[in-house]
């Protein structure tokens, strides 16, 4: 039976986003203990390299829009696949820290190139009733990528950590081929014309942008240092791939984000996700030497991470339906900036406070952010171009 447009694009997008986010963007955190051991880098340098990967991601976000405007929304997804593959190859073969950093940054840029363009692809090629589901499936592809990353980590446990990056290169090529086969070519992204009486997109996106700043900062701290927590303790080597597998497995719950947002409202879903991620960070920071606690933390984090990422795509498409890609990019850019700052800041203060204390402090930020989203009297924004809001959107 032929796949519907929503399922076809959703599956292809999930493959590309899964490699770009679940693998290329976060493999640095997984392989960080091996990189530290082989190259002898300090905590500050490791934190700066991690921040540089998100700077690459931010650059991809900023360049994807102009490329889509000239060549269509599928073009950035193709470039992102190429960056992921090339960056992973460079890391696999890099003989020096500087060349390794170049490869990590290039691979990290893949996520910026590929994620936001799918919002425009979905809103232009998928029937309205299927759009929320397709967007959630695409984002939840990250969970599949994390599961593959965990499998590669098991393989790498038997050999060098560079095997992880070699596997990512092969996965990036495969995902790019699937994307070209299943996603239709689109024309240049049209420039929208403001409607008379329409609300300002910037005003409509104020709350989801604030959420993105907090959310992406706290998740990058978790994913950068989770493997390091386990490596510093007395846990078995298999604990690291098991943690990533747990995140990926429970993160599959993010596929239901569209339905959940329709029931509760995107804002409430976002608040719940910040609380969930905060609980996972606190558990990791306070009991990182317990296998049971770390696995519980990973499971909780997976749900909050994937649902919290998917709700940004759903939320922005609700608020600015005629400029879904641009709206999503706006939130990803501000979130990307916080993703650049967070690891560098964490790397700078870990020597003084300790990794556990930094994770607990990050948990407090996440919990406070979740509480702020549901404070009584907080403003509600109507979708741009409509006369009334969609309840809690």
TrEMBL record:
<feature type="transmembrane region" description="Helical">
    <location>
        <begin position="356"/>
        <end position="375"/>
    </location>
</feature>
<dbReference type="InterPro" id="IPR050189">
    <property type="entry name" value="MFS_Efflux_Transporters"/>
</dbReference>
<feature type="transmembrane region" description="Helical">
    <location>
        <begin position="293"/>
        <end position="315"/>
    </location>
</feature>
<feature type="transmembrane region" description="Helical">
    <location>
        <begin position="163"/>
        <end position="182"/>
    </location>
</feature>
<feature type="transmembrane region" description="Helical">
    <location>
        <begin position="75"/>
        <end position="94"/>
    </location>
</feature>
<feature type="transmembrane region" description="Helical">
    <location>
        <begin position="327"/>
        <end position="350"/>
    </location>
</feature>
<keyword id="KW-1133">Transmembrane helix</keyword>
<dbReference type="InterPro" id="IPR011701">
    <property type="entry name" value="MFS"/>
</dbReference>
<dbReference type="GO" id="GO:0005886">
    <property type="term" value="C:plasma membrane"/>
</dbReference>
<keyword id="KW-1003">Cell membrane</keyword>
<keyword id="KW-0472">Membrane</keyword>
<feature type="domain" description="Major facilitator superfamily (MFS) profile">
    <location>
        <begin position="10"/>
        <end position="381"/>
    </location>
</feature>
<feature type="transmembrane region" description="Helical">
    <location>
        <begin position="100"/>
        <end position="122"/>
    </location>
</feature>
<dbReference type="InterPro" id="IPR036259">
    <property type="entry name" value="MFS_trans_sf"/>
</dbReference>
<feature type="transmembrane region" description="Helical">
    <location>
        <begin position="45"/>
        <end position="63"/>
    </location>
</feature>
<dbReference type="GO" id="GO:0022857">
    <property type="term" value="F:transmembrane transporter activity"/>
</dbReference>
<feature type="transmembrane region" description="Helical">
    <location>
        <begin position="203"/>
        <end position="225"/>
    </location>
</feature>
<dbReference type="Pfam" id="PF07690">
    <property type="entry name" value="MFS_1"/>
</dbReference>
<keyword id="KW-0812">Transmembrane</keyword>
<dbReference type="InterPro" id="IPR020846">
    <property type="entry name" value="MFS_dom"/>
</dbReference>
<feature type="transmembrane region" description="Helical">
    <location>
        <begin position="237"/>
        <end position="257"/>
    </location>
</feature>
<feature type="transmembrane region" description="Helical">
    <location>
        <begin position="134"/>
        <end position="157"/>
    </location>
</feature>
<feature type="transmembrane region" description="Helical">
    <location>
        <begin position="269"/>
        <end position="287"/>
    </location>
</feature>
<protein>
    <submittedName>
        <fullName>Arabinose ABC transporter permease</fullName>
    </submittedName>
</protein>
């Amino acid at each position: 039976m032929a796949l519907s447009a929503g399922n076809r694009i959703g599956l292809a997008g999930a493959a590309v986003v899964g490699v770009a986010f679940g693998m290329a963007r976060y493999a640095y955190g997984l392989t960080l203990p091996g990189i530290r051991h082989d190259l002898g880098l300090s905590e500050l340098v490791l934190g700066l390299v991690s921040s540089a990967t998100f700077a690459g991601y931010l650059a991809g976000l900023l360049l994807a829009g102009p490329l889509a405007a000239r060549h269509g929304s599928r073009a950035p997804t193709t470039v992102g696949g190429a960056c992921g593959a090339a960056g992973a190859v460079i890391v696999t073969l890099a003989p020096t820290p500087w060349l390794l950093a170049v490869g990590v940054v290039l691979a990290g840029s893949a996520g910026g190139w590929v994620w936001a363009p799918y919002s425009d692809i979905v809103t232009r090629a998928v029937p309205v009733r299927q759009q929320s589901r397709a967007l959630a499936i695409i984002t939840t592809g990250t969970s599949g990528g994390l599961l593959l990353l965990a499998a590669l980590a098991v393989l790498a446990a038997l050999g060098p950590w560079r095997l992880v990056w070699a596997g990512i290169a092969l996965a990036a090529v495969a995902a790019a081929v699937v994307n070209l086969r299943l996603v239709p070519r689109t024309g240049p992204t049209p420039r929208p014309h403001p409607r008379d009486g329409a609300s300002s997109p910037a005003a409509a996106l104020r709350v989801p942008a604030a959420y993105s700043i907090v959310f992406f900062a706290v998740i990058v701290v978790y994913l950068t240092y989770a493997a390091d927590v386990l490596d510093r303790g007395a846990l078995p080597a298999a604990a690291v791939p098991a943690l990533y597998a747990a995140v990926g497995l429970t993160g599959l719950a993010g596929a239901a984000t569209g339905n959940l947002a329709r029931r509760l409202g995107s804002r409430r879903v976002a608040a719940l996700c910040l609380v969930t991620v905060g609980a996972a960070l606190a558990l990791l920071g306070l009991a990182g030497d317990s296998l049971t606690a770390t696995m519980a933390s990973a499971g909780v984090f997976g749900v909050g991470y994937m649902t919290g990422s998917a709700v940004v795509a759903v939320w922005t498409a609700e608020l600015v339906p005629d400029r879904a890609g641009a709206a999503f990019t706006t939130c990803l850019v501000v979130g990307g900036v916080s993703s650049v700052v967070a690891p560098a800041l964490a790397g700078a203060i870990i020597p003084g406070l300790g990794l556990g204390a930094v994770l607990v402090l990050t948990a407090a930020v996440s919990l406070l952010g979740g509480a702020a989203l549901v404070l009584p009297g907080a403003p509600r924004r109507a979708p741009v171009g409509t006369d009334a809001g969609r309840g809690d959107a």
